[in-house]
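note to self: dont lose this again. the chain is below, predicted strucutre after it. 115 aa total, dont forget to put it in the shared folder this time
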Amino acid sequence: MKQDQTLKADAGKLQMRLLFAYLWGPLAQVCAVLTFGAQKYSANSCQSVERERNWDALYRHLSAFHSGVCKDKESGLHHLAHAACNILFLLWFETKDQTLTRFDTPPVGRRNKPQ
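---
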């Protein structure tokens, strides 16, 4: 018997499927950067790197991409994937003791209309 889905209390909760449905390719590139880093250094070594070094690396990768260079010379991976990793590392430092499961509702005038 099919359950009534209107009773599911998921309003305002994260729609994780959106991350995997639409961003699978970029996520795989970020994962490649993380794997490269784990092989070069060690898994989870990013947790002990100072924030300033992540900022420096982020700016180097963004600068290289802005200059027209897509791939990092050492890894062969996209500079934006490296930059995304640096942003994720910085976000991890900022939010490692927090759990986000709910968020503020977007302003009414900015919402997409139901289809």
